[in-house]
Design goal:
With 270 residues, the protein is mostly beta strands. The chain has one domain (7-110, 127-266): Porin. The protein is 14% helix and 39% strand. The strands form two sheets. Strands 1, 2, 5, 6, 7, 8, 9, 10, 11, 12, 13, 14, 15 and 16 form a 14-stranded antiparallel sheet that branches. α2 (37-51) runs antiparallel to α5 (188-194).
Length: 270
Amino acid sequence: MATSEGFRSATAVSADGDGRWKTQLADGWDILGNTNGGYMLAIASRASSEATGGRLPVTITGHFTRRGISGPAAVETDVVRSGRQLSVVRSRLLQDDQVILEVLGTFAEPRSEMQPALLTDATPVDLPPPDACLRSIPSDTAPFPPPSVGKIDLRTSRRVAEMLETGPYGEAALEGWFRLLDDEPLDVHALILASDSFPPTAFAAGLPIGWTPTIELTVHIRDPHVQGWIKCEFRSRFVSGGFIEEDGLFWDESGALVAQSRQLAMVSKG
């Protein structure tokens, strides 16, 4: 199993002058040797937040241009606009002076408390408590589960956990719990990581797809005051034109919606 490394340490950035930030794509946050996309987007989000003086992401979108690998990296940030409540930041994650991720996000001043919801037209997925779910452990002999799940505490429903042994269950949907290791407190950037920490829904559906490389990932933060376990659910409705979408909903332990995501991936047969 991968060794524990704190999420904040693994996504840390340090100022390098003129809107540029030094960082490191840490070892073990990968899938098939490629650094996890949600992890990379979380690094870009943290750098963008620093560039705004500590404002937090409301929405952030990343377009993946090249694979990332463990090692030194940099983030270039450009605050496009900074208003009284919101800032818009464009950023780029680079390795060896090549852009691997293009990002655009809107960031807001932190609030002491969130406004109550005016409309909620969905309820959290029915899921046993974390202790009754099965923890994902990286495989020493197979590509899946990947090393990246050893960096977090990921608990899935039994049908998801047993999918590698029993095969797909015929539905492009999956669910589970997410938190950081060693009781590390969650932050908004960890919610971005959660959006890309579960297996692809296409695998559960049993579609004739070999891999689903991410093209674009968007995360909306609905409530930055997150603690404890996050209940996560993902569903896909369409596979067409060579692409699959995956929608995510993220709920805290009280049943409040804390984030949403949409990921567009390319479908590949090999």
